[in-house]
Amino acid sequence: MASVAFPNISKTTRLPNGTSYNYVFVEPKGDKPYILFLHDFPSSSFDWRHQIPFFSKAGYGVIVPDLLGYGGSDKPEVLEAYGLKSMSDDMVSLLDHLQIKDVLGVGHDWGSFLLSRLANYHPDRFIAYVFLDIGYWAPYADFDVDAINAQAERQFGYSMFGYWHFFNAPNSAQIMIDNFERSMALCYPADPQALLQHLCPLGAARKYYETQPSVAVAAWFTPAEQTTYRQIFSAENGGFAGGLNWYKAQIGRVNAADEGALPSERYHIDKPTFLVVCTKDPVAIPAIQTEGMKPYVKQLEIESLDCGHWVQIVKANEVNEMLKGFFDRHGGDGVSEKL
User: Fold this and answer.
1) Using CA atoms, how far apart are residues 24 and 26, in angstroms rounded to an integer?
2) Are strands 34-38 and 61-65 parallel, antiparallel or unpaired?
3) In the structure, what pLDDT confidence band is assigned to residue 30 with cuts at 50, 70 and 90?
4) What pLDDT is stored for residue 4 in this prediction?
5) Bridging pattern class, strands 20-26 and 34-38
6) Cβ count within 10 A of residue 91
7) Number of other CB atoms surrounding residue 332 within 10 Å
8) Hey, which residues does 62 pair with through a beta bridge?
9) Residues 321-332: what's their mean pLDDT?
């Protein structure tokens, strides 16, 4: 939960729909706008521990929620709550509560999916967008994980999303919490390519828990950070169940009707957009991210970093400087408008 990692700069707000979000909040200094950071699975606002002090010191305002199902935010069991439109509306409701009209948006992986829908449903609330590891995904009413895996097999020789079926299983959250250290190591592996063996292939994730030795946890994931992570994902705080609901909602077609109703002109982004791809992430294949964005984004800048999934942690200095340069060029010299 945000208060574990950032006890002095965290708030909790109950939105008009009754949902509570915990979030880091730092006001800007001078003429800088706010940045909204959106994290991935299985993580929390703690993912942005290197960005919060950097951008705060640079004068930017910072808003970093524990997204729905994570940390100190609510963890509803009903899958409809995890619809991307519903959660996009929650983020805008949070901005309304803070009386902030527009922000710079930064998403990582699932945070990138959420930022994509924010760009579709609420483009007026953003100055510019940054996508880390996973790029912008246009609305996908006919999302079919098996079709995506089959296409990846044909094109790259392996499934990208084989683990989604394990995450969708009724007992996946219990297996992950019962084998917490193995779960943490698989999510933060010393070798990013371990995902090719233990996560990407169909059936590999369950096999990892049932018959395979644990992978080694990354050296950059320090003992102190691991202690904080254990607190955030403790069984008492809900474990992994809330985060897994994002996968279950997507597989269960919770987003299908909303995305099918979006007019095609809303698929396109006409504001400055920055993509950072990761060469060693076998799930977020760089070519898919870049080619998938180009038809929809008019003002696209792309950079590549030689690392695995957790780019904002492993390459924190590089990411911070890249983002600051992008923000300085595109909207970092003006205050976020107030409502």
Assistant:
1) 7
2) parallel
3) confident
4) 83
5) unpaired
6) 27
7) 22
8) 26, 35
9) 91
What pLDDT is stored for residue 332 in this prediction? 61
- Site of tokens 């509560």: 97
* H helical segments located in the chain: 2-5, 51-57, 84-97, 110-121, 145-156, 164-168, 172-178, 180-187, 194-198, 204-210, 223-232, 241-251, 256-261, 286-293, 311-314, 316-329
Single-letter code of the amino acid located at 172? S
What burial class does residue 175 get, using C-beta atoms within 10 Å of its C-beta: 0-12 exposed, 13-18 middle, 19+ buried? middle
pLDDT for 2 beyond 60: no
Please work out, in degrees rounded to the nearest 5, the angle formed at the alpha carbon of residue 192 by the alpha carbons of 188 and 196: 115
Average pLDDT, integer, range 28-48: 96
Q: Are residues 143 and 168 in contact, defined by beta-carbon separation less than 8 angstroms?
A: no
What's the mean pLDDT in 83-103? 98
Beta bridge partners of 100: 338
If you average pLDDT over every residue of the chain, what do you get? Answer: 95
Polymer length in residues for the chain = 339
Token pair, residue 183, equals 């779960």
Please, are residues 313 and 47 in contact by the beta-carbon 8 Å criterion?
yes
What predicted TM-score, i.e. pTM, was given to this entire model? 0.97
